[in-house]
Amino acid sequence: MKVAIIGANGQLGTDLVEVFSPKQNVISLTHAEIEITDIDNVKKVLTSVKPDLLLNTAAYNKVPDAEKNPIEAFKINALGVRNLAKICQDEKIRFLHYSTDYVFDGKKQMPYTENDMPNPLNVYGNTKLSGEYFALNYCEYSFVVRVSGIYGKVPGRSKGNNFITSILKQAKERPEVKVVNDEVLTPTPTLWIAKNTLELVQANSYGLYHMSCEGEVSWYEFAKTIWEELKIKTPLHPASVKDFPSLVKRPFYSVLENQKLKTLGINQMPDWKEALVEFLKKNNI
Ligand SMILES: NC(=O)c1ccc[n+]([C@@H]2O[C@H](COP(=O)([O-])OP(=O)(O)OC[C@H]3O[C@@H](n4cnc5c(N)ncnc54)[C@H](OP(=O)(O)O)[C@@H]3O)[C@@H](O)[C@H]2O)c1
């Protein structure tokens, strides 16, 4: 199978390339090679590469900046996905697109399944939800995979970091570190998302999927585990979202339940703590 991966040098894209490469013919597409907001360019690239499957990790994912640049965010997260979905439909290319837990408002306070109604609180979540609809409604061979709190060995390209790189920098540079204890989610390594994506595309059942680690944790508890594992001496304190004034409204609870992966019998996602400990060891952190 020929698999084209958009955002191949990004956080998730890097692990997708690594996991898919031994078994599939992988074509890595970086931003220099494809511009998803330009439908003529998308058509030119995809008709020349002729993949059987397209994986899209490209996104405008600087959440606070999206509040100030909603049009730019919509162009990439919604219209860019529409372009990909349209061309995939025309060229009969199977299409897998990644979305986010931020499509939910957090009021449920229990894990969200694929059947729960989204209600995004911010521009980023709204544009990502629109992208989901374009993917699912413009291409009949599409998967949409919602992920949450992702971290990989290559930090997010657009943000220049992920939670782990950012918290370790703070531990080095600050006398003490404060982390919010009232945002609960399930941080997930991109390597596991890549592995479970390979399983999913082989199952061939299109539609919407949740794909995060098992269990749930606040960002503070997650940081505390990193402190314990790495024996960090810098004092770590729990804080509230209110202590960090921001333009962006975020869900206080955005845990995803991998209900559809479980129904198909292909949920491979480990517990968040097991995955975190493995990640720290594997990457010599
Ligand atoms: N970070 C999180 O915690 C989180 C949580 C939930 C969901 N997600 C979703 O997970 C997915 C992967 O995120 P990530 O952290 O791997 O992102 P990332 O590291 O920022 O990678 C995104 C990639 O897409 C490329 N790209 C950006 N705009 C493009 C465009 N217009 N055309 C073509 N390529 C473009 C970027 O290239 P350049 O850098 O060269 O522009 C980069 O290679 C995204 O869909 C994101 O919304 C992330």
Task: Looking at this protein, list some descriptive labels.
single chain, 285 residues, alpha/beta, Rossmann fold, 6-stranded parallel beta sheet, two-stranded parallel ribbon, 10 helices, 12 strands, 16% strand, globular, binds NADP nicotinamide-adenine-dinucleotide phosphate
In short:
The chain has 285 residues and is of the alpha/beta class. 42% of the residues lie in helices and 16% in strands.
Description:
The structure is a single chain. The chain has helices spanning 11-20, 39-49, 63-68, 70-91, 123-138, 163-173, 190-203, 219-230, 259-264, 272-282; strands spanning 2-6, 25-29, 53-56, 94-100, 142-147, 150-151, 177-180, 184-185, 188-189, 207-210, 217-218, 236-239. It is α/β, with parallel strands linked by helices. Helix 5 (123-138) links the parallel strand 4 and strand 5. Helix 1 (11-20) packs across helix 7 and helix 4 (70-91) runs parallel beside helix 5 (123-138). It is globular, with a radius of gyration of 18 Å. It binds NADP nicotinamide-adenine-dinucleotide phosphate (NAP). NADP nicotinamide-adenine-dinucleotide phosphate binds next to helix 1, helix 4 and strand 4. Residues 6-7, 9-13, 30-31, 34-37, 57-59, 61, 76, 80, 98, 100-101, 128, 147-150, 156-158 line the site of NADP nicotinamide-adenine-dinucleotide phosphate.
List the helices and strands and how they pair.
Elements lengths: L1 E5 L4 H10 L4 E5 L9 H11 L3 E4 L6 H6 L1 H22 L2 E7 L22 H16 L3 E6 L2 E2 L11 H11 L3 E4 L3 E2 L2 E2 H14 L3 E4 L6 E2 H12 L5 E4 L19 H6 L7 H11 L3
Parallel strand pairs: 1-2, 1-3, 3-4, 4-5, 5-10, 6-9, 7-12
Antiparallel strand pairs: 8-11
Helix pairs in contact: 1-7, 2-4, 4-5, 8-10
This protein binds NADP nicotinamide-adenine-dinucleotide phosphate (NAP).
